[in-house]
Amino acid sequence: MKALTWQGKRSVSVEDVPDPRIEDASDAIVRITSTAICGSDLHLYEVLGPYMHKGDVLGHEPMGIVEEVGSSVTNLKPGDRVVIPFNISCGHCWMCNNGLQSQCETTQVHEQGTGAALFGFSELYGSVPGGQAEYLRVPHADYGPVKVGSELPDERYLYLSDILPTAWQGVQYADVPDGGTLAVFGLGPVGQFASRIGKHLGHRVIAVEPVAERRAMAERHGIETIEFSKETGDVLREMTNGRGPDAVLDAVGMESHGSPVGAFAQHAVGLLPDALAKKAMETAGVDRLNVLHAAIDSVRRGGTVSLSGVYGGTASPMPLLTMFDKQIQTRMGQCNVRRWTDQLLPIVEDPSDPLGVMDLKTHEVPLSEAPGAYSMFQKKQDGCIKVVLKP
Question: How far is CA 204 from its chain centroid?
């Protein structure tokens, strides 16, 4: 089959790889009909390359048609249409039973000391082949896949694989009070949905984003927007009675703009041999923290900072004095996708499309053109916000 493979820093290519097959009784094989490029994929394309291996199959936002199931899979049959959550969870361990599917005890990657295995996301999370391919082997298919209807287009459902539940969890973690204000930093795909979800739940939402096309998309959905600058905290305080927003959601993560120290560290690590680069990332601060520090500065005293953007350094400096003095609460983590999908499925099927899932995709290309789409997405060219690939 054809699949998009990692070949090196900023280098991906579509190659012929072996077709997946049933390896365990709980597996399913899914023929992919749509799969998307995520902002997290760009971290593998750039910063997290030391944890990748040449030929790794990328992608963790797929959906498609079940082709084959293992002997213990009774909830699915060939021909079913499914969305595949990006984290692989068993559904019966203590973590899954407590809504922490991203920490699944059955699929935790113990050799790396990390949580549940993820599709297409480096040795840090199990080196499981991903979904930017014609076919995908899905472990624990007796729990993970979300069965959906056959009438609506893929884009109604596709984002249930990752970015929509990630945004939903981020807003839930933000714990915005009734009548409160949520500031969202970053209007990539997760930030777009987080902003719309905040408004859908009745909050005032102010989105902060340097790219005009991304602000324009949010404004179509009634979101107030401002540009990111050194004065962002002051601007947000002026808009919120001098206090700052009740909660701030960081939807940017480790590769934010305007962080020269972090950018230098990431570039320097990228020049090291993989073994040394891994060690550096495990012991040094390599995140670009400009957005996170701005979120901490902007949020009101006693407010909440919710992190949906991915961070990768283990020694990133944090302004703990400020965080303690302002009594800031923080919540973060990989999305527990299956915790939220039952709530989100009726929303994405609502004919009125309250979260605008049909107004996110800016580019649709065949899988064969994925390398160019990665480059375009990373460089934010041609108004690119969300790319959907069609195998």
Answer: 23
Binned at pLDDT 50, 70 and 90, residue 275 comes out as low
* CA-based nearest residue to 123, from 133, 135, 134, 114: 114
Query: What's phi and psi for 324, nearest 5 deg?
Result: -70, -45
pTM of the model: 0.91
- pLDDT per residue as tens digits for the range 327-382: 999 999 999 999 999 999 999 999 999 999 999 999 999 999 999 999 999 998 99
Calpha distance 83→92 (Å, rounded):
20
Contact 283, 312 (CB under 8 A): no
Q: Tell how many helices (H) and how many strands (E) occur in the chain.
A: 13, 17
Contact 44, 8 (CB under 8 A): no
Q: What is the DSSP letter of 177?
A: P
Structural domains of the chain ordered from first start: 2-162+335-390 (3.90.180.10), 166-332 (3.40.50.720)
Residue 243, pLDDT score:
97
Query: d(Cα 234, Cα 169) in Å, to the nearest integer?
Result: 27
The token pair that represents 296 in the structure block: 């901490």
Backbone dihedral region of 244: left (phi > 0), alpha (psi from -120 to 50 degrees) or beta? left
- Backbone φ and ψ for 188, nearest 5 degrees, come out as -70, -170
Q: What is the DSSP string of 67-101?
A: EEE-TT--S--TT-EEE--SB---SSSHHHHTT-G
Q: How far apart are CA 324 and CA 302, in angstroms?
A: 10
What average pLDDT does the segment 48-60 reach? 89
pLDDT in tens, 90-123: 999 999 999 999 999 999 999 999 999 999 998 9
- pLDDT tier at 260, thresholds 50, 70, 90: very low
Burial 374-384, CB ≥16 within 10 A → b, else e: bebbbeeeeeb
Q: Which residues contact 136 (CB under 8 A, 6 or more apart)?
A: 20, 29, 30, 32, 62, 64, 84, 119, 129, 130
Of the pLDDT bands very low, low, confident and very high (cuts 50, 70, 90), residue 265 is very low
Give CA–CA dist 89/95, Å, rounded.
9
How far apart are the C-alpha atoms of 173 and 250, rounded to whole Å?
11
